[in-house]
Design brief:
The chain is an alpha/beta fold and about 230 residues long. The chain contains eight helices and seven strands, in the order ααββααβααβαββαβ. Helices cover about 40% and strands about 20% of the residues. Strand 6, helix 8 and strand 7 form a beta-alpha-beta unit. The chain starts with a helix and ends in a 12-residue tail after the last strand.
């Protein structure tokens, strides 16, 4: 039975590669294997590692820019939900590199109006990949938004903090109480959104909160990609 399953998976992978050849997440160049980026784009990726944003540790695969920024823009604004797999692969690599452990994985939520407009929550799709890597349960709706906030990209740093303060709540506190939480989003800029989510999780009794993103901007930089 195990041999049959392995063979079936191999055949399925071959069919996918034949009928829908993998392409670079940033530029659509054909890929020879199951890489996320073509060699040219991969060369431009700058690793990020762990970065403290206030009291919140933020683990990121790369610095925001170049092919990573383009792939995330497509994923988030161009209806490319199919990039959840490749970008989730990058998030999983960041998990392994940082040696993360968790009892539960929670994505940063979208307001229902934006979720309806986009059709999916990019953070939730990434969080599913992270949960598989960690072998931890996914609380896809663990956090909710208490109000519809203004676009972060239109605000300065101080206003961003005020904009999201108290904007999140934990739907079922018992599911995070006493647990190590990995909080997942696509991009971290000022860290205001992540910090507001952290505050809600800690207030609900979470033991600890570590943020994980595909990319983060360099310290002191703001970028439109924090517009959710």
């Amino acid at each position: 039975m195990a041999v049959f399953l392995l063979l079936a998976r191999a055949v399925a992978a071959w069919l996918v590669d034949t009928l829908a050849p993998p392409t670079c997440a940033a530029c659509d160049a054909r890929l020879a294997g199951r890489a996320v980026f073509c060699p040219s784009c991969a060369h431009a990726v700058v690793p990020a590692g762990v970065h403290p944003a206030g009291a919140l540790p933020v683990v990121a695969f790369a610095l925001f820019g170049g092919p990573v920024a383009e792939a995330l823009r497509r994923f988030k604004y161009a209806g490319r939900g199919d990039l959840a797999g490749p970008l989730g692969h990058l998030a999983r690599r960041a998990v392994r590199a940082a040696g993360l452990v968790a009892d539960v994985v929670v994505p940063v939520p979208l307001h229902p109006a934006r979720l309806a407009e986009r059709g999916y929550n990019q953070a939730a799709l990434l969080a599913a990949e992270v949960a598989r890597e960690l072998g931890a349960p996914l609380e896809a709706r663990g956090l909710g938004r208490t109000r519809h906030t203004a676009h972060q990209a239109r605000l300065d740093r101080a206003a961003r903090l005020t904009n999201v303060e108290g904007a999140f709540r934990v739907r079922a506190p018992a599911r995070v109480r006493g647990r190590r939480v990995v909080l997942v989003d696509d991009v971290a800029t000022t860290g205001a959104t992540l910090a507001a989510c952290r505050d809600a999780l800690l207030a609900a009794g979470a033991r600890s909160v570590t943020a994980l993103v595909v990319a983060r901007t360099e310290q002191g930089m703001d970028h439109e990609e924090e517009e959710r």
